[in-house]
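Please decode residue identities from the backbone states below.
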């Protein structure tokens, strides 16, 4: 599926486009923060502190300044005193937006074109990609992440502290319980997901609601860093307001008048988030950061109406390429802005934050980074035209291959979906492609050019070794062997087999092919096995395979067990 955004203005010009702790309540902690003195002087460095707040699944409508019934006084004030991004685009799902924020590159250039990175996949943001925190650290920044990662963790090198962050506190997966911090990916696939650095944060967990817990951690980072000595980059990626819909009861009291229970809980979650950001901004001022800080606020994708979100008047939702899925709430707040209290209607995309923030931080942008983002600081701060003229949302070859071909067979590509919208048609009800075929032609040519630069899709099969029961009940890295990584990245072909014997002798109930399934070679009769209750691979299950590729038979000395076997060719 191809998706290219194109803004249209009468087509006059063509543009392709609970509590903090047992002793300390949330309210008491807020009061203590406000009463604390400021022990720091104003920062002397010309490099600004950068606080990037990424929220999860907040709908375009779900902020006060877009007319929502949800009360967001902090967000409204910060946006009103800063610059509202009213032509700002992200990706329709979690991992794609986060990968493009971290790398400044489109999905077609990282191999993450398809869907999200799932907890059971041996996949992560490719290690050869230079990340935003790494570039800022090279520029002298202290880099910290709090919150949701969702960019893979199958091996240690994928973790945030291996990708440029000095510290990390948060979750590795895409969602989970806001209080217990547990997540299930299916029957028998449940585990704990809260980390401090590279270890499970059991000792720091007091059953806190994650929005409050992450805010408290972020403020502790501010309190323990000297803003005069070193610039700070804080990436605060909230779990809120992603499902499950959970929130402390006192926030629900504000929305008794909302009849839909999902919407009511969702609204309460947004209000809790708004209060958390209020506390964060107080801390920035108290600890001497504020006057030299750039705050960026962004949702990672559109809202999900089935989980209480609203993107009105935009069409579509999270996981779609309609405006409601990819046009996001966003603003920049900073005393360093030239034109405060304005709206930026220039085209801005989430990939643009990489070059924009690195340049602001006086870092270097090497040519070999091959960025798809642009430095849009002058467009935001001064109201100048954006250097960005188009957005490639995605080219995903896994979804739909052309059966009959599109324009000129789509240059031999896949079926093409092109979105063109005007300000007068936010519902995207009018198909303009028939009216302007020459525009469609130019867009298809642009898509073909983009596709020539695409790298193969990384979307490996589920690996049952990811099960937390093999890792002390915790979701975490499970790849230990370099040979396994070589196989994943193009080494010898292999298959993953799932065995369920019905006795001493039986037939395999299912088989899941690995990455190199196009190389149909029969497996070796000497597999490596992971027996129940063990966390290492070894040839001890005594499974014997016949040399048949699409159907296996075997005998086993062990009865009534379930395991996974890796067979190398």
């Amino acid at each position: 599926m191809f998706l290219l955004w194109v803004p249209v203005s009468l087509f006059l010009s063509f543009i392709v486009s609970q509590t903090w702790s047992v002793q300390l309540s949330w309210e008491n902690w807020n009061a203590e923060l406000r009463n604390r003195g400021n022990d720091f002087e104003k920062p002397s460095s010309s490099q600004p502190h950068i606080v990037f707040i990424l929220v999860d699944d907040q709908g375009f409508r779900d902020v006060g300044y877009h007319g929502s019934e949800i009360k967001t006084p902090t967000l409204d004030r910060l946006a009103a005193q800063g610059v509202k991004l009213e032509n700002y685009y992200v990706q329709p799902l979690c991992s794609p937006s986060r990968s493009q924020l971290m790398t400044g590159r489109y999905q077609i250039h990282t191999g993450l074109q398809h869907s999200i990175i799932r907890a059971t996949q041996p996949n992560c943001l490719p290690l050869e990609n230079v990340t935003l925190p790494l570039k800022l650290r090279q520029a002298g920044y202290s880099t910290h992440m709090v919150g949701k990662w969702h960019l893979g963790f199958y091996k240690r090198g994928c973790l945030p502290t291996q990708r440029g962050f000095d510290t990390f506190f948060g979750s590795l997966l895409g969602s989970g319980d806001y209080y217990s911090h547990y997540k299930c990916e299916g029957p028998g696939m449940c585990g704990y997901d809260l980390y401090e650095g590279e270890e499970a944060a059991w000792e720091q967990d007091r059953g806190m609601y994650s929005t409050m817990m992450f805010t408290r951690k972020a403020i502790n980072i501010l309190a323990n860093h000297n803003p005069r000595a070193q610039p700070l980059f804080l990436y605060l990626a909230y779990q809120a307001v992603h499902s499950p819909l959970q929130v402390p009861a006192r926030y629900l009291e504000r929305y008794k008048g909302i009849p839909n229970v999902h919407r009511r809980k969702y609204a309460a979650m947004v209000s809790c988030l708004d209060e958390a950001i209020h506390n964060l901004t107080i801390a920035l001022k108290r600890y001497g950061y504020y006057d030299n800080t750039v705050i960026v606020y962004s949702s990672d994708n559109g809202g999900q109406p089935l989980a209480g979100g609203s993107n009105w008047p935009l069409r579509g939702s999270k996981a779609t390429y309609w405006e409601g899925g990819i046009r996001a709430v966003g603003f920049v707040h900073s005393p360093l802005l030239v034109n405060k209290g304005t709206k930026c209607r220039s085209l801005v995309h989430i990939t643009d934050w990489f070059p924009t923030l690195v340049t602001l931080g006086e870092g270097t942008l090497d040519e070999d980074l091959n960025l798809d983002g642009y430095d849009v600081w002058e467009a935001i701060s001064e109201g100048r035209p954006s250097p960005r003229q188009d957005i490639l949302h995605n080219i995903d070859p896994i979804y739909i291959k052309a059966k009959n071909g599109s324009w000129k067979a789509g240059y031999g590509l896949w079926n093409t979906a092109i979105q063109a919208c005007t300000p007068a048609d936010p519902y995207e009800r009018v198909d303009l492609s028939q009216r302007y075929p020459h525009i469609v032609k130019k867009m298809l040519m642009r898509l073909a050019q983009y596709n020539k630069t695409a790298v193969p899709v990384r979307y490996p099969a589920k690996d049952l070794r990811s099960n937390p029961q093999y890792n002390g009940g915790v979701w975490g890295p499970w790849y230990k062997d370099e040979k396994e990584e070589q196989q994943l990245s193009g080494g010898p072909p292999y298959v993953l087999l799932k065995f369920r014997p019905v006795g001493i002798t039986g037939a395999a109930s299912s088989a899941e092919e690995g990455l190199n399934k196009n190389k149909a070679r029969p497996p070796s009769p000497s597999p490596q096995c992971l027996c129940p209750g063990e966390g290492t691979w070894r040839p001890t299950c005594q499974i014997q395979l016949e040399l048949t590729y699409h159907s296996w038979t075997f005998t086993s000395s062990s009865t009534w067990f379930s395991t996974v076997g890796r067979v190398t060719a």
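Observation: The first strand starts at residue 2 and ends at 7.
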